[in-house]
Amino acid sequence: MDNAIQQAENNNVVVGLIVIFVLIGCSLSVGYSIGNNACEKREKNHFHRHDESRFKKTTKLSTLPNRVSTKSNDLETTTSLISITNSTTPEKTTRISGTIVRTSNCTIKQRPPIKVNLDGQTYRLSRQSDGKHWQYDESNQQCVSGIPGIRQPLDSFTKFKFVKMNDGSYKIMSKCRKVFLFDGFGVSGAHSRCLNGKQNPDDNRMRFRVTMETQNLCRIRTKATGRFLRMDEDLHVSSIKNISDCNSLFRLEKVR
Questions:
Q1: pLDDT (tens digit, 9 = 90+) per residue, 104-152?
Q2: For residues 81 and 77, what is the distance between their CA atoms, to the nearest angstrom?
């Protein structure tokens, strides 16, 4: 009888322990579920706030003025603001004396034009790339061409005088023959397509714009066409190819 009572009490204890463990397990499960839901809710709120912040930033950038301009007498600078999700990229267009320079993501200091008065001065011109002189060649249709060979003579046929016109352009005169040079490229019936002294029409093909790269390096363009004079592979000086390169860059050496 006592053993039966003792066995019943033991069974009750076991059942009680089982119930306790079940309750503990259920409590942990419910707590985990609640915590997991809270974490998910916090993450959603975080992403939602981040999206709103990014949207406000993009909207703010989009409302910036599309173009900001500043002008002065010789300089006009235009800045465009390009809206991107997280940044803006300025694209600048600078116009200086008719020349457009475009830059992006960088700042370039534009050099002021170099002013040299060539009026009434006599120079010996040579190609910057190899030092070959201009020469008024009477034996070659009175054209201007480079001197072949290494030795470059320093005679009157390599001297040229610049005469300034009212419009700022120059006439170029052969010092030895006192004739002005004419760009015959593109002229129907011209004596030569190269720079020559045979024709003397006194028009804009006999006037030239001189742009100084340095104090003694220049580029020369025919006023009528805007084409660059250059000394080509055949050594003739002409505007046929119209390329701004080392063959159209000439050194000025002042002489008497």
A1: 444 545 567 788 899 999 999 999 999 999 999 877 678 998 888 777 8
A2: 13
- Element at 12 (helix H, strand E): helix 2-62
Q: How far apart are CA 213 and CA 113, in angstroms?
A: 8
> Residue length, the chain?
256
Q: How confident is the model at residue 91 (pLDDT cuts 50, 70, 90)?
A: very low
Confidence of residue 77 (pLDDT cuts 50, 70, 90): very low
Q: Which residues pair with 253 in a beta bridge?
A: 124
Residue 122 carries which DSSP code?
A: E
Which CATH code is given to the segment(s) 122-255? 2.80.10.50
Q: Could you tell me how many helices (H) and strands (E) the chain has, helices first?
A: 1, 17
> Region 226-234: what's the mean pLDDT?
94
CA distance linking residue 147 with residue 157, whole number of Å = 11
DSSP letter assigned to residue 150? S
Please give the pLDDT value at position 246: 93
| Residue 32 main-chain phi, psi, to 5 deg | -65, -45
By percentage, how much of the chain surpasses pLDDT 70? 61
**135, 158 Cβ separation under 8 angstroms:** yes
Closest CA to 196 of 131, 133, 130, 145: 145
CB burial class (10 A; 0-12, 13-18, 19+) of residue 170? buried
Q: What does the domain layout of the chain look like in residue ranges?
A: 51-108, 122-255
Q: Is the dihedral of CA 78, 168, 113, 126 positive or negative?
A: positive
Helix, strand, or coil (residue 58): helix
